[in-house]
Design a protein that fits this description.
single chain; 315 residues; alpha+beta; Immunoglobulin-like; 4-stranded antiparallel sheet; 3 helices; 23% strand; rod-shaped
Length: 315
């Protein structure tokens, strides 16, 4: 009996030993798997961190390069503006503070490594301002050059018109033959003078002294034209002073008419009823004003044509 019990006890111990060995082996396997997972996670984190650092470094280098380019562009804009400003300092004086302020603000943003797109918008705005000023000044100088040319041409034209006006009365009959009598009227015997009213008698007297002229009257005969359409006509008189400005009530459209698609201001106007026979017409500029010495040019129009011209002089 004792031997059998010993044998059974030995078997039990042996079975327990084998079972314990298997359990320890499983624990070791699980521990190794966990370690492998941990090592893999650490390797993954290390790779991710490395990639993140590399991307961050690349982004930082890119930002530095972009900021360097922005600084180069800013320096270019300010160099061009400064060069132009030295050439036209008197004109750009009032605008300079705006440009200088924006330039300092952009430099501050670049130093502080602000958002690239914000700096880009600010730089584009500064470039637009500077270019706008340059274009405006260039345009002003071009316009001034054109005006100088036109002024010289206008002076030559005035001389020509004055010479033409002195010969106009002699050449009127020759020029009138060139008018199409089938559609155009013609002003004849044009007389333009300065007048004043004498004392208590109220008598009207011609006067050519600028300091004594009270009003100007333009009289003419609307020539007979048997083939012209009869009916209502608008007659306009334009009087240009020695300074080439038209004597007029105002620049309002109510005191203008259209001739050859151009809108012209008139001095005085009158609506007449034309029935193909010669008609005497007088129009008076009654506005009292300070007249100038020199030659005054008179042009007479209907709605369709310029029908006559003359001139008179105030001393």
């Amino acid at each position: 009996m004792d031997n059998k019990e010993n044998i059974n006890q030995n078997r039990d111990k042996q079975d327990k030993g084998e079972l314990g060995g298997k359990t320890d082996f499983k624990v070791y396997k699980i521990t190794i798997v966990i370690l492998i997972i941990i090592i893999g996670a650490l390797i993954f984190m290390l790779l991710t961190t490395h990639l993140s650092l590399r991307d961050s470094l690349a982004e930082t280098e890119q930002r530095i390069e972009l900021n360097r380019q922005l600084q180069v562009e800013l320096d270019s804009v300010m160099y061009k503006y400064t060069l132009f400003k030295h050439q036209h300092d008197s004109i750009l004086h009032d605008k300079d503070s705006i440009i200088q302020y924006n330039a300092r603000e952009i430099e501050r943003l670049i130093v502080q490594q602000e958002d690239y797109h914000r700096i880009r918008r600010q730089l584009d705005y500064l470039r637009d301002i500077a270019q706008d000023y340059v274009v405006r000044i260039d345009s002003l100088y071009q316009v001034a050059e054109v005006l100088r040319t036109e002024r010289d041409e206008a002076r030559e034209e005035v001389v020509h018109i004055k010479d033409y006006a002195t010969e106009l009365e002699k050449d009127r009959e020759v020029l009138s033959t060139k008018v199409d009598v089938a559609s155009a009227l013609r002003a004849e015997q044009i007389k333009a003078k300065g007048y004043r009213t004498r004392g208590f008698t109220g008598r009207e007297a011609e006067i050519d002294r600028v300091g004594r002229v009270e009003y100007i009257r333009v009289c003419f005969t609307l020539a007979e034209n048997p083939v012209a359409p009869p009916g209502e006509r608008n007659v306009y008189v334009r009087i240009a002073g020695p300074d080439e400005k038209i004597l007029r009530i105002s620049d309002d459209d109510a005191y203008s008419f259209v001739h050859n698609e151009d809108t012209l201001q008139y001095t005085v106007s009158k609506r007449i009823n034309y029935q193909n026979r010669a008609k005497d017409i007088c129009l008076t500029w009654e506005k009292y004003m300070e007249y100038m010495e020199g030659m005054y040019l008179v042009s007479i129009f209907t709605d369709e044509h310029r029908i006559g011209e003359s001139a008179f002089t105030l001393r």
